[in-house]
């Protein structure tokens, strides 16, 4: 899945993700468990972004007025 690819890429490149994996490994988790935890961590962050986007989106009963005059 896309989340798996993102997690593996971040585990290789992103310093924050590398620290997260190292912290999980020091807690006694296996590499697979640490990657799984990173995927859950990423999924929670993505969910927060989607939730914020949904809250900011106009509801179907709201009309969007153009900011530029077309006449």
Which helices and strands appear, and what pairs or packs with what?
Layout: H1 2-13, H2 15-26, H3 31-56
DSSP strand tally: 0
The 3D shape can be described as elongated
Would you tell me the overall average pLDDT? Answer: 88
C-alpha end-to-end distance: 48 Å
Largest sheet composition = none
How much strand content do the residues show?
under 5%
Q: Poorly predicted ranges (pLDDT <50, ≥5 residues)?
A: none
Q: By helix and strand content, what is the structural category?
A: mainly alpha
The helix-strand sequence is: HHH
DSSP helix count? 3
What would you report as the Rg, rounded to the nearest angstrom? 19 Å
Please estimate the helix content. Answer: over 70%
Task: Give your account of this protein's structure.
The protein is mainly α and about 70 residues long. About 70% of the residues lie in helices and about 0% in strands. The chain is built from 3 helices and no strands. Helix 1 (about 1-15) packs across helix 3 and helix 2 (about 15-25) packs across helix 3 (about 30-55).
List keywords for this structure.
71 residues, mainly alpha, 3 helices, 70% helix
Describe the structure concisely for a colleague:
This protein has 71 residues and is mainly α.
């Amino acid at each position: 899945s896309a989340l798996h690819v993102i997690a593996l890429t971040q585990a290789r490149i992103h310093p924050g993700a590398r620290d997260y994996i190292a912290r999980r490994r020091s807690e006694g988790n296996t590499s697979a468990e640490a990657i799984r935890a990173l995927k859950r961590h990423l999924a929670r962050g993505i969910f927060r972004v989607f939730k914020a986007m949904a809250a900011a989106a106009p509801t179907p009963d709201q009309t969007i007025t153009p900011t530029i005059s077309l006449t």
